[in-house]
Amino acid sequence: xxxxxxxxxxxxxxxxxxxxxxxxxxxxxxxxxxxxxxxxxxxxxxxxxxxxxxxxxxxxxxxxxxxxxxxxxxxxxxxxxxxxxxxxxxxxxxxxxxxxxxxxxxxxxxxxxxxxxxxxxxxxxxxxxxxxxxxxxxxxxxxxxxxxxxxxxxxxxxxxxxxxxxxxxxxxxxxxxxxxxxxxxxxxxxxxxxxxxxxxxxxxxxxxxxxxxxxxxxxxxxxxxxxxxxxxxxxxxxxxxxxxxxxxxxxxxxxxxxxxxxxxxxxxxxxxxxxxxxxxxxxxxxxxxxxxxxxxxxxxxxxxxxxxxxx
Length: 311
Known about the structure:
11 helices
């Protein structure tokens, strides 16, 4: 009897959704998606290759950038199989366990990326506000510890939620509104009381991503205060220019993340088409744009990329 109940309340497969109402155009829609994945994987791989092979780039700023590239690669690879299988083969099925594995990697890497962006903000803060102690503060062992803490925090805050999700019974429609698995979507399938997980998820998001945003804002307030105290106009522009890439990346990451979280938690009736587009922007655009932004705005990276491809 127990085995029957477990089977009944845990679906064998979950159905994912591409772009609602646009199924006949999925093959054509797959073209820009495929290009975005290629740009993301190739761009972040090139960034990693350049930083690894050039000893002059073995500095804190570029080590943090390599951490960001690794995280972006992980996010792209986590969603690529299900997204392209839907658009190319209309293969919407994903096993229950595979869905949980995917949402674990997506959410843990998202929290990890937020931590990395905070570390990068701290790097800019030290470089501009306390340049004389830059090398003594951001030593290689300390940078390694910051990277490890970022990863452990990402895994640590998501894992309890996965455990709670696994305990629930699922009797509602096993159809998700995205082309990959997200915690908020899987919760809607549960017929158990999910208030504990909902409260935990909200608290974790607020205490992690919310705190990261506040600390990043605080670091830039301090940076701006220091920059405005610089007498030379040219030096002020030079200092601010080192932060432009990071500010762009922060906006690209947090804007769709916060928007999608608000919609999932507080908006009941929302256009499935717009929600689907926003969900894809939330996970696909940052890994694509991050290497592009740093390649265009960071002179040392741009010069070495040109050198690699000219050779």
